Amino acid sequence: MKNKITALVLAFFLSGFNTMAQETWSRVRIYFDAHHSARSLSDAGLLPEHFSKGARNSIDAEIDSGDIQKLKNAGVRYEVLVPDIKAAYLESLQGMHNQKSGAPACGLANFDYGTMGPYHTFTEVVAHLDAMQAAFPNLVTTKDSLGASIEGRAIWAVKISDNPNTNESATEAPAYYDALHHAREPHSMESLLYFMWWLLENYGTDPVASYLVDNRELFFVPVVNPDGYVYNQTTDPNGGGMWRKNRRDNGGGVYGVDLNRNYSSSWGDPVGSSGNPTSGTYRGDSAFSEPESRAVRDYVIQIDPAVAFCCHTHGQKYLVSPGCMYPLDNYETYAEFSSEFILNDWWGYGTTSLMLGYSSCGTTRHFMHDRGTIAWTPEIGDSFWPAQSAFCSTVEGAQPSLLYIAHVAGSYARLHDFSVTGPALPGDTLAVDIRVRNRGLRMSADSVSVTATILTGNATALNAVTALGNIPARGLATGSMQFLVNPAAMLNDSVTLEFTVMEKGYITHVITKNVWVGTPLLIFQDNAESGFSNWTSASWDTTFMDRQSGLYCFADSRYGNYESNDTRIIQLVPQLKLAGATTPVLEMNAKWSLEPTYDDLVMQVSLNGTSWNTLRTYDGHSHWTQDRTDLSAYAGQNVYLRFLLDSDNGVQSDGFYFDDLRVVQYQLSGTGIDDSGWPSTVSLFPSPASETLQVRAAGKAQYEIITATGMRAGTGHFTDATSIDLRPFAAGVYVLRVFGIHGSHASRFVIERP
Asked: CA–CA distance from 175 to each of 140, 369, 607 (Å)?
């Protein structure tokens, strides 16, 4: 896929100064337009790495005075938001009177604030590792030195598990976490420190913490670059230091190698790394020239993790592996996992080239990916040194993804999809088929069961539990359940089912699904198995990635992210023929990851194919979900349908997927919709009516009142005859639909007021 994101994401212009501690760094908003894009920034010598969003068609970057001058020289429009971010950070510390170092922080008993502002010094991090082992000797190992840094400091690692000093990798899958490859990114380390304490403190009381500690081997290297981090403490004892690299003496007063460009995978590729020792992305004179990267290499080879997070800051995005090439291999796994763990306060996930605008070669995650480890780089937070007021929210916001990858390292049974066999008719049996996927990478999900709880009063359970046995890693298993639909249930009522998936008694997934009462009369359907036979698009495609049913689903950007400053449309070629339907609905399965606020996808309809009305707008992130859109406003007409994705010059993510699309009209029999008039056994009067409407029909029946816009305004039951109180309704035109054993019948009536 073409990479246009290069155009926007230019935050960390890794020009690399060896006197960074003395540079003035500013927070700058950089605007993109028709005249300035990636090419003009690249020509100006600016490369993107860290940035966040603050407005449409712009990015917010923390850059030094030299890079500001480059923006001026290139004629790129920008706005200085914070002239001196270090001064602003230090000023923010003055207002935090009640949050002192050493006091419990962020809701945990042992996690606290450090003495470098709220951040922990290297010595304090080491003390925390010792404290963990002292307080929980049966759950965490004594810290293990992986080797010494350039300046002789130990690179410490610990393991958390129920038998931490025993190698149980054959039965407990390993997951790996590291941080502080780059010395100016303390929140990467703080997020891990918080996560470690949360696991230890909640073991034995919280079921998630207990399960993970008992069933995983969790390995942590919280400070990969101790020398660079200590250097920042030396120059800026209250925090705010901007040194990035390690402290190798390159000669001539020039220091540092970028450890995250020093790994062997595609080492030496000039894209995203530099052979110039003065550069912030200097890759060293050979792969693994640095003792710090060698220490991580040897440790990873030893423990052979299934998954890994190589934590960095900042930007609130997840970079998937590899990093220096287009990841056609295993992208579907990264997209599957990322779409489940990402939260809406994160901007997106995707390949490095599409998320940042350039490829980064010689990275940790690329090295791990090449060894068979599924590895991400989470860019945590919105700044290198967030103010203390944002300290807890930032570390807490990283936890769901840290927990998720620990689960998928081993086994992780999740409801994949469900389907209904036959209609859900009042008084009849409802049959539901489910598929459960073991999303785990290494282990079988054993003794899997699913229980359905009915959350509405429209059904009772006949068989609401299904045992699926053992599901191999990445495998699927199928089960079925039966329910009795309440005889008094009304047409289009929902039967809401909460499915709880369990492995050996541990809850792995809880999700809610709906079934609607009635027989779905099919107006249109497409499950993507026939490709584009019903659609036209210049950019959308079908894909096998994480589809819901069959072999394919539709996607706007197969194998990667959508492009920046782009509009991509997929349009249904045949019109939807809604003649005879009074309450048609569009149902589909959908998932999406769209840059919150600035990118969106809209579902639109048109009567003439040129003027479009928006039915629904999708924003942010959602894993596969049931999606239902009311088309009643277009009942009786033929309409065009399309999906339109619109992006700005900002962050791109994985995009929009849909599967199993259908347009249906629900009714209470299988005879079809009859809108030709009332049979002799049904009558209503008077019309126009004022306060009451008299309805007569042979036998038992249900009715519903539909407004002119297609909304259901009233329902009821009757036998032979009924009188409907019209006083709660406004004057206007309505449709009365009666459902009996002979079918579904509708007629218009008018309410007039004196």
From this structure: 14, 13, 54
* Radius of gyration for the alpha carbons in the chain, expressed in angstroms and rounded: 30
- With residue 402 as reference, give the H or E element that holds it: helix 399-409
Give yes or no on whether 413-516 and 673-751 have one common fold.
Answer: yes
Q: Read off the DSSP letter of residue 473.
A: T
Residue type, 592: W
The band of 221, judged by pLDDT with boundaries at 50, 70 and 90, is very high
Place of tokens 């400070």: 223
Task: Classify strands 692-706 and 638-646 as parallel, antiparallel or unpaired.
Answer: unpaired
Domain spanning 521-667: CATH 3.40.50.2020 = no
Task: Considering the domain delimited by 413-516, tell me its CATH architecture.
Answer: Sandwich (2.60)
What separation, in Å, do the N-terminal and C-terminal C-alpha atoms of the chain show?
A: 65
CA 15 vs. chain centroid, Å, equals 32
The runs of H, that is alpha helices, within 120-185 are 122-135
pLDDT over 50 at 21, yes or no: no
Label the pairing between strands 683-685 and 692-706: antiparallel
Interval 694-738: pLDDT, tens = 988 777 777 888 776 656 788 888 888 899 999 889 898 887 877
DSSP 527: -
> What pTM, to 2 d.p., does this model score?
0.86
- CA 656 to centroid of chain Cα atoms: 12
- Percent of the chain whose predicted confidence (pLDDT) is above 70: 90
Report the SS3 class of residue 485: strand
